[in-house]
Structures
1.
Amino acid sequence: QKEVEQDPGPLSVPEGAIVSLNCTYSNSAFQYFMWYRQYSRKGPELLMYTYSSGNKEDGRFTAQVDKSSKYISLFIRDSQPSDSATYLCAISKAAGNKLTFGGGTRVLVKP
Amino acid sequence: DAGVTQSPTHLIKTRGQQVTLRCSPKSGHDTVSWYQQALGQGPQFIFQYYEEEERQRGNFPDRFSGHQFPNYSSELNVNALLLGDSALYLCASSSSQGPVPRAQYFGPGTRLLVL
């Protein structure tokens, strides 16, 4: 069983829709949760991070963590074609330690 | 403020050869991590360097080795290249003194093709 599971998609939505992404993890030792966005043939770009259960909002992005269910989510409001990319969840057991990534979800936002 | 830089951007090698990839961390960062990303997959952790020492290592063979220099830049070396080593190699930097979670910031990667 992989430590982090993520639906590969692709997830296709119309412009302006809410994009909902999620990951599940297996080990309760993971304490830090990050979301990265990766455009084709580019390096991952950090979008958000959190280390507590609950919601964290930053502009159009909301990250949600449920440690009891080992479930993390990312919501993108008012999606734009420029949001079309692969979204990667990443988790770690300690601050600054190695990241364990999900396989990524490819998102397509259609004009 | 320059972000993480990597060189070269692309590289083609043949099986059995050796390769060296280079990384300069983001200004103010002292920790460098290396990841391998195969096509269509998430990055896999190779190792992390801090204070010129390998601090953590993922599940990669000894053919993969690294180095960190006093200016915090880093190299990844891969010996006896295999076809399966073809991937995007990503460098990430972070600060050991930064606020929790000491997030890692990635460079653009080096795309290695082994023929």
2.
Amino acid sequence: GAVVSQHPSWVICKSGTSVKIECRSLDFQATTMFWYRQFPKQSLMLMATSNEGSKATYEQGVEKDKFLINHASLTLSTLTVTSAHPEDSSFYICSARPAGGRGNQPQHFGDGTRLSIL
Amino acid sequence: GDSVTQMEGPVTLSEEAFLTINCTYTATGYPSLFWYVQYPGEGLQLLLKATKADDKGSNKGFEATYRKETTSFHLEKGSVQVSDSAVYFCALSGGGSEKLVFGKGTKLTVNP
């Protein structure tokens, strides 16, 4: 149980393109989803917290207009990297926390999306 | 703020060796503690967790005990396998926040 599907798994595109990444919770509902960025051989950096039906909460230093987050349903959140440039190349990972239950429920992670901007 | 300090890798072991990856934390209140594992090219998988002092999380032969007195949550396995080769992340959440705070990760390589 508690499967999170992330799509696509790998994207290569030209500079200036906008790229959308989807994160779906397949067998549970998630009022909260999280988006992380991971640089090579480094830990995960939280970019934003996505709440269903409301605006995302971005971490300090993360550009809201650059990384657009939409959480339109209890099973889907999307991250759009707008006008992507080579410095946006990275591994992006989403996670979802099951709705309800106690606050210490673990987050379940997708398999990540490797974004390469040429 | 909250933080997690993890032993730096990489760690290289022979198959069937004993594994310890140290993790200590700084947090206000009583956080929940987690170990996640990341296999090459994949996202993170929850390995085990503990939500209060003296709890022991265990899964797939891995164990970690929540030690409040030493603010530690060390990961152990008695006999590692080649398939355990991965990056291991210690993490916490707490203080009413849903956010996870991660350690820097420890890369484990197990040789046959």
3.
Amino acid sequence: GENVEQHPSTLSVQEGDSAVIKCTYSDSASNYFPWYKQELGKRPQLIIDIRSNVGEKKDQRIAVTLNKTAKHFSLHITETQPEDSAVYFCAATGSGGSYIPTFGRGTSLIVHP
Amino acid sequence: DAMVIQNPRYQVTQFGKPVTLSCSQTLNHNVMYWYQQKSSQAPKLLFHYYDKDFNNEADTPDNFQSRRPNTSFCFLDIRSPGLGDAAMYLCATSRVAGTTKNIQYFGAGTRLSVL
């Protein structure tokens, strides 16, 4: 089955800095990669996603890049704000034709004002 | 507007006393999932329904069962809760059809405490 590794587990930055979270996956057949943000005590919510036929996608301060050859994808947040503080989960879907996502372990992002 | 609704938000039960958590959706999605999430960990899939077809994860304890009486509702039954079952339980839904990307919509969760 698919295996997703996510790093770092904790990321602490100053407001205004950039933050990068990286994930690797094991199955080259995976073709859809969502990122979820979960604030403390709240539900995970999709913030950005990318399909395997695209190398990069951007939405305002958030971007995701995908390197299919290396089997890794990254979340980039620029000009971080305190409200970006949350746990971020990456996921990979499509391995073996499965629609079930495999989640990474999560990254706790702390943005200091 | 909440599209995936979980009730109750907080549930306290006694060791060994059966408990049922509920989830409803207004999205008419064909797939519904139940996840267990413990502090600072990724959601762990317990099982899911693809339409009426039930799919159990291999490592889901027998203590956990689920029912989906119709498209909109799904229930998680914990027959004999143990202290280790205290966690946040998340319900999610998605529309799976062909090559459509599988975006999951999560409910707010039910936090279960076992005394």
